[in-house]
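Attaching the record inline, Q. Sequence:
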Amino acid sequence: MIRQFKNQLNGRLSWRQTFTALRYPNYRLWFWGQMISLFGSWMQGTAQSFLMFELTRSPVYLGYAGFASGVPTWLFMLYAGVVADRMPRRNLMIITQTSMMILAFITAGLSFLHLIQPWHIIILAFGFGVTNAFDAPARQAMVKELVGPEHLTNAIALNSAMFNTSVALGPAVGGMTYALFGPAWCFTINGLSFIAVIAALAAMKLIPFVPNAEQNSIVTDLKEGLRYVAAHSMIRTIISLVGVMTLFGFAFATLMPAWAVRILHGNSTTNGFLQSARGFGALISALLIASLGRFKFRGKLLTFGSFAFPVMLIIFSFINWLPLSLLFLFGIGFALILVFNLANASVQTLTPDHLRGRVMSIYSLTFFGSMPIGALIIGSMAARIGEPTTIMVNALIVLAYAGFIFVFMPKLRRLE
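Structure, as predicted:
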């Protein structure tokens, strides 16, 4: 099977197909606007988490901040999916992006005035969570409005490449900016970066939005989306895998500031390098997927990633040397994006247009909603049993669930 998979991969790999979606003018605007904005967002996220650790010296508070940013996901995400199916998604995103810009400038102002406290960070994290809860379903569902259906997988892969280019560069630049100039400038740059995506959204020439002729109640629409996901075994399996990997696996990123200081004896720059190493791996993975074009072995790649990620995370938990840590974080990022990227593309491909906002809100709820719970769990565990043991235990849970799906849901591997 491995030889057959390798032959399929070699037969489909073509770097000329990597940037196909950029032929669409609307997608080009989206790509570059989002790239600039995400770069600033990762600078903010890296600076915010390290600032929290500097103020408290506690991994528990890192968990509190992560939990606060994710609580709005549970409160608003499903409702936001209905909103994303009822109004122009571009308009909704302009509102959310403007709100995030304002929050970034508030954070910067408090930092410049040396007034910032841990409770400020937690409240602002909650505010960012509210805006993201409404932004995520619209952002996920809007991709199909920007490209032709035959290039949807390529566009989603390029979205991941864009996201992970910012992950690769943003934290490293954010860490150095933090060390040289302080956290306030990281927050200011993030605020300014939102101008790019807002301008890009305003400049797009989209087909006019046509609301559904039949308007049901919000509860009825919510139930329709939930019933569809519950009845579709493949979508249900993919979303459950994403949930477990986010809850017990991706939560390891919450501990990176503490890992940089306590395990590797570094500082904010070290933290930035750790985050960036994972981002570089994810970027290469996303570009690989984009280069494959319209390939028909999505399930095999997804399955491979679901095993490779926890195995490398277990090995990483034993490492206390920076160069080797960076190497394994590169591999972790590579495997992680195989799962998240292909899961996203698969769910979108399997979902009809009129339900896309609601189904993607359920997907986004699982992804973003698992983050705060995972952050709270992993922060509390690390305070009791240490960061290395915590990461190893959580990775073993992910590995066990990947094995469960491999045995009891074999048709996932046959997904095209």
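The CA atoms of residues 129 and 364 lie 12 Å apart. The domain at 9-204+217-412 is CATH 1.20.1250.20 (Growth Hormone; Chain: A;).

More tomorrow.
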